[in-house]
Each structure stands twice: as C-alpha cells, then as structure tokens.
C-alpha cells in the first residue's frame, strides 16, 4: 500500500512539474514576443458572440439584463429551486449531467457567472464577492423565485455560494459546496501568471488551445474524459469578447484571497454538503478538511479518483448524492470517505 502511494505521489509530482514547465515556457515565449514588438501570428483573436451563441446556447437559453450585464441562464423544470454556479473559466454547461439525472425533480436555474461563458464581463468591472452576491439577488428576483433555494457551487461558484448563504441565510435551505475555496492555500501556477510582468498583454492576446487542454488534463483525474469537444467548449468560451481581461482580474482576486482564511464561514447555519474530488490539484483535500473543522455538522462525500469538478467527472453519482442530501438532509457516508 505504501509503495503504491509513493508511486502515485511520484506520478503526481512528475505531472505537476511537467505542467509547471509547459506553462513557464509559454509565459517566457509570450514575454519574449511582446519584448520584440509582438508577434501577430501568435495572437489569438476573440470569437464573435453571435458565433458562440450558435454553438453554445440552446432552446433553453435566455439572456437577462442585470446591472448592464446580459447574463446567460437556463431555467428548467418544476419544483424546489436548485441554483447551480460553475467555477473558474467554466460555464453553465458544467452542470449538464445534473440536469440530465435529477432535472425532473427540481426547478434548476444555472447561469454563466459574469466574466465567463456567454455572459461575458461585468459592466462594472468589479469582480468582488459582494458583486456576485448582488447578481444572484437580482437574478432570483427577476425570475420571481420566492421559495427557499438549494444553492450549489463548484470552485469559484462555491466561493460565491457560501458568500450568498452568509448574506441571505433566510433564502438558502441547503448549501452544496464542490471543491470550494475559503481558506489560505497556494494557488495554481496558471493563476499566479496573472501577476507576472506583461500579464495584461499576454493574458488578453495569447491564448493557445494547448494551454486550455493542459489545464483541463490537470483538473481531471480521468484523462480519458478530456475530449476534443470538452477542450473546444472551454477554449471557445474563453475567447468570448471581454472574458480574458475579466478572467485576469478574477485570478488576481483569487491570489489576494488565498493569502488568508476567509472571514465569516463559521456563520453558515443551513445544512451543508461538501463534495470533493480527492485528486483535486487546485483546491486540495486539505481545504475540505478545514471546512469540516469549521462546520463539523456538515455532510460530506469525498470521491476517489476524481479531480476538481465532480459534477463533470462523475455526473450521475454526484447528482444522485446531491439529490439524496436535498431530500433527506444527509448522505450515506462510505468507508473511504473517512476524514
């Protein structure tokens, strides 16, 4: 057992080094291109919003004006409202599996978090927790959601979710956090690059597809699930006009936020479920254990062989676990979930 663990650790360390080397080489090349006056052939232009809508909107897609930002959302089904928020550089499509497996039981509301997906950048340019909380407030009001909601978020979406739950405990019946940051931690190299010299020019002009592919392979434990279609979706939506500058600002906010523990998480009072991939390299299991220290009453499911986005890697299992929690307030804890 110990030998296998050491072998696995060695593979993870080697992969981390290769990832670091690839990102560092890209950064150095981009900086060199800028220093030499720019390289037109290396630059990645934005994609037309109309083209992106044709590819990634569907018959359920709607757009609603919130503080000058046209938010892309989907509001499907009937029953208790289940509001879903995706993570960094993602989109509402990350929840397709949950829509498939439990969509008949809930009114599922999901949206492209401003700064990402088809929604694009915030008109205000302020990517703060309070700003995102206000976006949810107005979205629910405009959609005439009067019942208490179950609020679920992955990664950045989880960060927004627990901030909303603290601000509006009377509106949140249950809270589901999937690999959600809240405590002091190291940040990934791709995020740190936002503070590199020349990052403003690099991040908004040079976006090679291989970088998106490399990051997805880092975030997925099951490499076979990183298909060309998946990479295309993440890559294309990154090129939505305004998304790259917005992402840079969010990355910088993440760097600042990761320097210390967030205040107020102990105020979370509603039933909470923690769902975590044990192989998450971005928000590791140590953060999940910190959550359990602060919220010892929380339910939890920790998944073997799963990375940063359980709802994508194991859509059926994670959706049914969420459904069980929403219906009963608890989940069946397995032996391998042990803290």
Summarize the structure.
With 339 residues, the chain is of the alpha/beta class. The protein has 13 helices and eight strands. Strands 1-2-4-3-5-6-7-8 form an eight-stranded mixed beta sheet, with helices on both faces.
What would you say this structure looks like, in words?
This protein starts with a helix and ends in an 11-residue tail after the last helix. Helix 3 (96-102) packs across helix 13 and helix 4 packs across helix 5 (156-167). An eight-stranded mixed β-sheet has the order 1-2-4-3-5-6-7-8, with helices on both faces. A hairpin with a 2-residue loop joins strand 1 (61-66) and strand 2. The chain is globular. The protein is of the alpha/beta class. The protein has helices at 2-35, 49-56, 96-102, 129-142, 156-167, 189-192, 199-205, 209-219, 228-238, 243-257, 285-294, 310-313, 315-328, and strands at 61-66, 69-76, 80-85, 106-111, 149-154, 172-178, 272-277, 299-303.
Strand content: 5-15%
Arithmetic mean pLDDT:
88
- Helix residue percentage: 40-55%
Assembly status: single chain
Number of strands: 8
The total count of helices amounts to 13
Molecular shape: globular
Reported for the largest beta sheet, the result is: 8 strands, mixed
The structural class is: alpha/beta
The first-to-last residue Cα distance is: 18 Å
Neighbour order of strands in the largest sheet: 1-2-4-3-5-6-7-8
Low-confidence stretches: 1-13, 28-38
H/E topology pattern: HHEEEHEHEHEHHHHHEHEHH
Measured on Cα atoms, how large is the radius of gyration?
19 Å
């Amino acid at each position: 057992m110990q030998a296998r663990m050491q072998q696995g650790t060695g593979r993870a360390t080697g992969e981390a080094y290769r990832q670091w080397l690839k990102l560092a080489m890209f950064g150095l090349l981009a900086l060199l291109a800028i220093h030499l006056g720019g390289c037109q052939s290396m630059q990645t232009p934005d994609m037309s919003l109309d083209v992106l809508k044709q590819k990634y909107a569907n018959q359920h897609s709607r757009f609603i004006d919130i503080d000058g930002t046209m938010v892309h959302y989907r509001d499907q089904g009937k029953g208790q409202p289940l509001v879903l928020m995706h993570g960094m550089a993602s989109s509402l499509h990350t929840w397709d599996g949950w829509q498939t497996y439990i969509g008949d039981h809930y009114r599922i509301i999901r949206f492209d978090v401003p700064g990402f997906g088809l929604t694009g950048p915030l008109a205000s340019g302020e990517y703060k927790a309070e700003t995102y909380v206000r976006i949810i407030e107005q979205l629910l009001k405009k959609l005439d959601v009067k019942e208490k909601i179950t609020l679920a978020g992955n990664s950045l979406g989880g960060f927004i979710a627990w901030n909303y739950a603290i601000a509006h405990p009377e509106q949140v019946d249950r809270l589901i956090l999937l690999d959600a940051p809240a405590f002091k931690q190291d940040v990934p190299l791709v995020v740190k690059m936002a503070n590199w010299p020349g990052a403003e020019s690099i991040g908004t002009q040079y976006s090679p597809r291989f970088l998106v592919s490399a990051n997805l392979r880092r975030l997925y434990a099951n490499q076979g699930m990183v298909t060309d279609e998946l990479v295309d979706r993440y890559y294309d939506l990154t090129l939505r006009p305004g998304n790259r500058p917005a992402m840079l600002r969010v990355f910088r906010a993440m760097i600042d936020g990761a320097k210390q523990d967030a205040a107020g998480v102990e105020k979370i009072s509603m039933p909470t479920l923690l769902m975590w991939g044990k192989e998450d390299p971005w928000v590791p299991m140590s953060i999940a254990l910190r959550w359990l220290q602060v919220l010892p009453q929380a339910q939890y499911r920790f998944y073997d062989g799963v990375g940063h986005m359980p709802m994508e890697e194991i859509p059926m299992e994670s959706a049914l676990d969420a459904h069980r929690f929403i219906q009963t307030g608890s989940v069946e804890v397995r032996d391998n979930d042990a803290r």
